[in-house]
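Team,

Forwarding the record for the chain on the shared tracking sheet. I've put the sequence and predicted structure together so nobody has to dig through attachments.
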Amino acid sequence: MKKLLLTVCLCLLAVTAAAEPPKKSDARPKKPAAKAEPVDPAEAAAAEFESQLEYQRGRIELPGGIATLNVPESFRYLKPEHAERLLVEAWGNPPGTKTLGMLVPSNVSPLAEEGWGVVIVYEEDGHVDDSDAGSVDYDELLTQMKKDTAERNKEREQQGYPSISVVGWARPPHYEQAGHKLYWARELSVPGAPEHTLNYDIRLLGRKGVISFNAVSGMTKLGEVEGAMKEVMSFADFNPGHRYADFDSKVDNVAAYGIGALVAGKVAAKAGFFKVLLGIILAGKKFVVIAVIAVGALIAKLIKGRSE
């Protein structure tokens, strides 16, 4: 990747030099100008891109009015249209995934190599019966997840996504009965990746559906991501009228799945959300995208300058 960006920079310097008109000579002696530091076009493009993202903090009511986030200083929220830009234009995901926005940590840019984010999605498939939470055999479930994931690899590869393997639990599933909040973390591997991938999930169960908070990063960031995700659980909740306790069996539908299916990822796969996760796993691709944006923007300026 560094070689790609170096090549881009050298090409840009050559184009810039060719585009500049010759200057008239000046006989007066001048003090030697301070040598300017070269500007990395990828970094400049990344900074320009991020400046267009509208970050928010404080009390955020999610689209549809179903839930509220009280976003602290440690996080920043992006509304759906800006989350879409980050996911698609910078991280290389396919367009069209409907989200309720994203959360990104305040201490790192989402465009940095170590950057990561939390994608928020709502699935209104009905009220999830949590009565099986204490009886799910998560070791057996993990074995089935590995098998299901392996079977889907051929389809993923045909769609242009890499194969993926479930290594094991990074954190085994845990259900908080009082708050109706479920969380777990998986360790994944992708061929050619320098390290294994961490997929950390939170599910908030509500009256008519489930809110998903999903983060993907490298396994080396497990401690940081886990602490941050537990913080997310503390400041996110359904609004009154949409909470789990507000379920009315006379008028509300019951979901066709329970806690086990949520953990197994069958619901996420149905929603096409796994494509988003794979795109985030390939987040290094964003540097290629940003580099191309930088080259295109500068060449366009040079061409425009010549025509004026």
